[in-house]
Amino acid sequence: MDIIEKLNWRYATKQFDPTKKLSDDQVNKLIEATNLSPSSFGLQPFSILLIENEEIRKKLKEAAWNQPQLTDASHVVLFAAHTDLSNKDVEDFLKLISETRNIPLESLSEYDAMMKGFIAGMSESDKINWISKQTYIALGQLLVTCAVEGIDACPMEGFDKGQFDEILGLKDKNLTSVVMATIGYRSENDKYQHLAKVRKPIDQILVRI
Amino acid sequence: MDIIEKLNWRYATKQFDPTKKLSDDQVNKLIEATNLSPSSFGLQPFSILLIENEEIRKKLKEAAWNQPQLTDASHVVLFAAHTDLSNKDVEDFLKLISETRNIPLESLSEYDAMMKGFIAGMSESDKINWISKQTYIALGQLLVTCAVEGIDACPMEGFDKGQFDEILGLKDKNLTSVVMATIGYRSENDKYQHLAKVRKPIDQILVRI
Q1: How many angstroms separate the CA atoms of B138 and B143, rounded?
Q2: CA distance B20 to B62
Q3: pLDDT for position B11
Q4: Side by side, which strands form the sheet with A46-51?
Q5: What's the gap in Å between the CA of B33 and the closest CA on chain A?
Q6: A196 vs B contacts (CB less than 8 Å)
Q7: Which of A78, A75, A73 is nearest to A190 (CA)?
């Protein structure tokens, strides 16, 4: 497996084959890989929405410029930020560390203070921005994992977040939508798969110091 | 190669072995993989700074809470957003598409208008936020590629961006630092490599709809 070959194989799939579904094993593996993404402090202050429901996907499509991926892909994976991030999240996280690593909670008091201080220093919009960035790492990890597994994906930012939140009832769950990927299998008819990948030459994007 | 195994192997390396350097081939592969990351519209409105200079790395370390990765890792990879994103970037990008795919520029006029409209609708801080998010996808892609290649890495947000910009003279280059990864090989003495990975159970992070 050459990673460069895999990354060149992937492309932002515009047309999925609606007859091809990912297996439970495949989806579970992708979600597990995504959950292994690093996040700032390790806090993981977001949820991953795995959307299969057809009726809901039709509505989401309308709130996403009618892009066909929303209904034709096998699954929609939507990242949503926690809008109620607070000290309780830090405390729950510290309990998880303590249990996972079998170490006393007290030994984490410095980490506790650092995280709480960091969160207290952010405005509400700073928090959503910061959390959003963490979901983009996870999105990157999901996309590479898809490529490695030979699964097609399309990262998508172009949708009405307010409408998505309403359709999915996210406000009541203290969530707000950030970014998504549709995943599945490319249609044979998707002309984009045959186009050369467009990337800046390395010497234009790289600065050596 | 099982991707889950690779992702479990990786961890945010706190202590690198300063005697072990990545080869040019390894670094080139990582940069190529990072450059293959998708970005919104495909615009890639950021630079990748590959920093080896020891004197500069000492200064960066001081601006990053003295975290030893800055000087002990083989290389520092810093993502920096373009602060002067404008219609010219869109035009350069369209030229690149036209040349890469051998299609007339005129056929891209709709795409041209869409991108320019999108950029015009953003404030300066919106732009930096949006570009920053794109660099986090690339960071995610870099981290997974490192894991696949058996290379250690530490994603790092905790540094003084203003000081980094000053040390690296980024303002004059119309760049501003966003996020970085230090890459190389873990030290045998890094105790963090032996700690169990802490992640939320899937049923806590996943919402099925």
Answers
A1: 9
A2: 22
A3: 97
A4: A152-156, A175-184, A75-82, A46-51, B206-208
A5: 6
A6: 100-101
A7: A73
- CB–CB of A44/A134 below 8 Å? yes
Structural domains in chain A (count)? 1
The sign of the dihedral angle between the CA atoms of B175, B176, B182, B183 is negative
Residue with tokens 């707000």: A176
Give the CATH number of the domain where residue B196 resides.
3.40.109.10
Give me B49's structure tokens: 């700074």
Q: Rounded CA gap, B135 and A134, in Å?
A: 11
Q: Are A154 and A182 in contact (CB under 8 A)?
A: yes
Q: What is the DSSP letter of B193?
A: G
pLDDT at position B31 is 98
Element (H, E) at A93: helix A87-101
* Token output for B180: 């970085």
Give the pLDDT confidence of B10-69 residue by residue, as tens digits: 999 999 999 999 999 999 999 999 999 999 999 999 999 999 999 999 999 999 999 999
d(CA B105, CA A44): 43
H-run or E-run covering A6:
helix A3-9
In whole angstroms, what is the distance from residue B60 CA to residue B180 CA? 11
Enter the ipTM. Answer: 0.97
Closest CB to A157 among B40, B42, B132: B40
Asked whether the beta carbons of B186 and B17 are under 8 A apart, the reply is yes
For the stretch A150-194, pLDDT in tens is 999 999 999 999 999 999 999 999 999 999 999 999 999 999 999
Domain ranges, residue A122:
3-205
Q: Are B67 and B158 in contact (CB under 8 A)?
A: yes
**Closest Cα in chain A, distance from residue B1 (Å):** 7
- Residues 6 or more apart whose Cβ sits within 8 Å of residue B166: none
Give the CA dihedral A105, B157, B51, B151, nearest 10 degrees.
50
Please indicate whether, in this complex, the C-beta atoms of B140 and A37 are within 8 angstroms of each other: yes
User: How many pairs of residues across A and B have Cβ atoms under 8 Å apart?
Assistant: 177
